[in-house]
Amino acid sequence: MRVLVIEDERGLAKAIVEGLAEEGFVADAAHDGVDGLWRAVNEAHDVIVLDIMLPGLSGYEVLKRLRAAEVWTPVLMLTAKDGEYDEADALDLGGDDYLTKPFSYVVLVAHLRALLRRGAPTRPAVLAVGDLTLDPARRRCRRADDEIALTAREFTLLEYLLRHPDEVVGKTDILTHVWDENFDGDTNIVEVYIGYLRRKIDAPYGRRTIETVRGAGYRLNDHGG
Q1: Final residue of a structural domain among 98, 118, 138
Q2: Mean pLDDT for each 10-residue chunk of the chain (225 residues)?
Q3: Could you tell me if 173 and 76 lie in one domain?
Q4: Please, what's the b/e burial string for 137-150 (b: 16 or more CB within 10 A of its CB; e: otherwise)?
Q5: What residues form DSSP beta bridges with 40?
Q6: CB 162: neighbour CB atoms within 10 A?
Q7: Number of folded domains in the chain?
Q8: Residue 50 shares a structural domain with residue 157
Q9: Would you state the pLDDT for residue 135?
Q10: Judgement on whether residues 87 and 146 belong to the same structural domain of the protein
Q11: Is residue 21 located within the same domain as residue 105?
């Protein structure tokens, strides 16, 4: 099995490559985001180990461009020990698994073998309500011919609503699926992000796609105008 390791700490990258070789893997290394992206797109690998903090292009940007290029090779993200949102963001952007530094090679190999057993993910379907579309694979949102820029959290929230069209979803459900099941902050954060989305996907187009159902939650449909 061939592994691409994209890691700018050359000593760590060398150690990972050598450690994987001892486990029967064939491993290549790239030390910046630009070279790593090129190799990930143009060379055949069974799995990619991708650090988040990279020169040239960050691991997040490499991952976004990789999925936009319709490369579905499983990606294991390496995240910082003190990165509060690293794990969530890595998965939100299309990563398949993550590992926090420092890690043992036994655990790394176990994660890689699990990803290989799972295989490359299929391309996610484009979600749509009316002329509003969301492409989870390419991380793109469009209203008709206009592309709409969303933050990672806005994207995840809209994706959750689009996966439940014409259904009323409550704040608790949204917090569990878009933030974290153990979220203990102000639940009004949901209202704040609903407002952000409305200003981007509805207000400029005279639409009311996201409906507030008083006392119950929110419903996404194509009836508002």
Answers
A1: 118
A2: 92 91 88 94 91 90 84 86 59 78 87 81 76 85 93 89 89 81 73 95 93 91 66
A3: no
A4: bbbbbbbeeeebeb
A5: none
A6: 19
A7: 2
A8: no
A9: 87
A10: no
A11: yes
Place of tokens 């806005």: 154
What does pTM read for this prediction? 0.57
110: tokens are 């176990």
**CATH assignment at residue 207:** 1.10.10.10
Name the one residue in this structure whose structure tokens are 């993200």.
77
d(CA 111, CA 108): 5
Rounded CA gap, 101 and 82, in Å? 9
Q: In Å, how far from its chain's centre is CA 121? A: 13
Three-state helix/strand/coil letters over the chain: CEEEEECCCHHHHHHHHHHHHHCCCEEEEECCHHHHHHHHHHCCCCEEEEECCCCCCCHHHHHHHHHHCCCCCCEEEEECCCCCCHHHHHHHCCCCEEEECCCCHHHHHHHHHHHHHHCCCCCCCCEEECCEEEECCCCEEEECCEEECCCHHHHHHHHHHHCCCCCEECHHHHHHHHHCCCCCCCCCHHHHHHHHHHHHHHHHHCCCCEEEECCCEEEECCCCC
